[in-house]
Records
---
Amino acid sequence: MLVHSVRFIRTMAKRQLLLLSSSRVHGCEYLEFAENDICELLQKSKVSKILFIPYALKDMDDYLRTVEKPFRKWGYKVESIHNSNPLEAVNSAEAIFVGGGNTFRLLKTLYDLNLIDPIKKRIEAGIPYIGSSAGTNVATIGINTTNDMPIVYPPSFKALNLVPFNINPHYIDAFPDSTHMGETREQRIEQYFEEEECYPVLGLREGSMLYVQGNTAVLKGISGAKLFKKNCEPEEFKVDSDLSCLLK
């Protein structure tokens, strides 16, 4: 296990990730709340063109139009992978943005098109990866802690493994006065820890995101996050908290 961890840290020494809980936050336009961090990440790598992966939604043409709007405003060209040869597009990408939608559909399509390893290799080489919601889920070890319905069945729940833990985007706390009798999000995550193979889970509240550069990770955005580990009490983290410990 230690040898595997050391190897993972070395291969991911160049990674540049921005993992958003969501693309939309109340009171903001699409991706607006993350504008400064997105542009900072892209400017550092002198990116001019972004490869968009829209597989989480069915209407990919409409999805592309939504994504183009903010990036065009910020000075970036967006090309969608569904309009080109997928493998060639990944191999030539300057940066990758994977949008939200249904995580099971997204991961299944990545497997169907044999894109898991090519995307991972590009991230290992140092190109920026921006994920939102489902795009954040597939950046982790596996999609076991997504909130989505399994509308399709990928061959595996294992994902890109760009970070050695799982994330629960759109994490919401239980409301003390709520009359809802179903499981809370925290209870769902605890059920995941009942399985033998499980990993820490970072609950990203709306408006929060994880900024990963090599072997450092910082919580960014406008709201905090909650970290869950098996047999441990959950930990709260505020914006600007150092979460590099999760990468080791």
---
Amino acid sequence: MSPHAAPDYAALASDIKRWARELGFAEAGISGVGLQQDEQHLQGWLADGYHGQMEYMARHGTRRSRPDELEPGTQRVISVRMDYLPPGTRHAWEVIGDGEAGYVARYALGRDYHKLMRNRLQKLAERIRGAIGDFGHRAYVDSAPVLEKALARNAGLGWIGKHTVLINRQAGSYFFLGELYTNLPLPIDKPATAHCGTCRKCIDICPTQAIVGPYRLDARRCISYLTIELKGSIPEDLREPIGNRIFGCDDCQLICPWNKFAQDATEPDFAPRHRLDGAKLVELFGWSEEEFLQRTEGMAIRRTGYEGWLRNIAVALGNAPPSADIRAALQARADHASAMVREHVAWALARCDASSQPLAGPG
């Protein structure tokens, strides 16, 4: 397409989808900016307090659900997705079933996706500029108040499942999303239709019953929230159900029948680092703060912070089969400088003591 010709927006839309694939995205789609029903759903969710400490979910008013308020002049949103399931990793259910190992959500095993995807979106914008000249745009990857799942659904990339995660018929749900807001009047794609039917496996399997109903997630009970977003003590009644999940949770995705179609990541940077697809809890608990910061450089795990990391692992050690190694690891942190860490270590040690008590014999 010549930069001097009047744009053929249908041809440009086709080119954008091809360029997106060439840049490593699995798929791209285009939507308008109308999200009225999703705005009502968001407001109801916030009113119920399901966002917990995530004040940022309410901070931006209607800009989250009105793209043209966040970025004035926006007419269309180009949504992209990128598969993240690293090939060759230890099987998720195997790790969850190994009480001595720490489970890290599959999306967080390798490099943090935010910069990687934003850079690719900027390259996509550069290709568009090369074809038609300057145009208004802004790239987002989890970096601003954006209803990314609703926009991706409207762009045909998948439907929002009962667990509130986007599902694609050909690729399951293990993928990241990103957006390019633009002022170009591109033709929009047909929204995806829902295909959960009567299935409720994700609701039933949730360890903490955080999915309080179809499409209703109480984040305050969600293990991803508890191990990443929560900046204080994990409620005691939710510690045991967390099991050995030390950063995030995938159970609702692991059980989803549509993930039999999940695609492996093609991006090598998503490969696991430091054997985090099944490393031993005692080893991870032994990391110093310097080691934690060095080993999680450029990874999403950084978000929990070192104290949160120790807090989460202490809970997992309290849920693990008791052993001398686990008790020694916990004792080594019993006088930690952080009151939050000390609290969770004390809870875990009490669990070890209770599990080690011999059963009373017949009187």
